[in-house]
Amino acid sequence: MGEDQEEEETNVPPGELTAFQYTVLLVLAEESRYGLAIKDELEEYYGTEINHGRLYPNLDEIAEDGLIEKRSLDTHTNQYELTEDGYETIRARLDWELSKVITDGERAETVARLIENVDRNE
Fold first, then answer.
1. What DSSP designation does 49 have?
2. How large is the average pLDDT for residues 7-31?
3. 42 with 53: CB under 8 angstroms?
4. Pairs from 70-73 (Cβ < 8 Å, separation ≥ 24)
5. Residues 64-110: pLDDT tens digits?
6. For residues 16 and 85, what is the distance between their CA atoms, to the nearest angstrom?
7. Rounded to two decimals, what is the model's pTM?
8. Nearest-CA neighbor of 46 among 25, 20, 26?
9. Using a CB cutoff of 8 Å and minimum separation of 24, what contacts does 94-100 make?
10. Which residues lie below 8 Å from residue 4, measured CB to CB, with a gap of 6+?
């Protein structure tokens, strides 16, 4: 694959990701994980079983897009890690979402409090 082609593939607008793919990026933003750990986290979030036929094709697709990196740990286990492009995709989507949510000072204060709570929990 040439450099120009690779560059096109890594510039995925946040709006082109499915909600499920975006949630996978968020899970990997916390830390890199192997497939079953991602599955466990998603099942906790969604409150339902996530089948392999849904998870792994999505992981492969967002890896091909350059948003996550896929590495083999052994013959049966892959490790997935958010790339810088993946982080920028999350940041761009959050920026857009917040521009829609924060419409006045009261909402801005609420979001600021949410961020402060995250900082305190670290």
1. -
2. 84
3. no
4. 73/34
5. 999 999 999 898 999 999 999 999 999 999 999 999 999 888 989 98
6. 14
7. 0.81
8. 20
9. 96/14
10. none
The two beta strands, 33-34 and 68-72, are unpaired
**Which residues have a Cβ under 8 Å from the Cβ of 15 and sit 6 or more positions away?**
93
CATH topology of domain 3-121: Arc Repressor Mutant, subunit A (1.10.10)
Measured between alpha carbons, how far is 90 from 35 in angstroms, rounded to an integer? 20
Q: What is the dihedral of CA 37, 63, 48, 51, to 10 degrees?
A: -90
- 62 contacts: CB under 8 Å, gap ≥ 6: 12, 17, 21, 24, 25, 68, 86
User: Where on the phi/psi map is residue 17: left (φ > 0), alpha (ψ -120 to 50), or beta?
Assistant: beta
Beta bridge pairs of residue 34: 79
Q: Give the residue extent of every domain in the chain.
A: 3-121
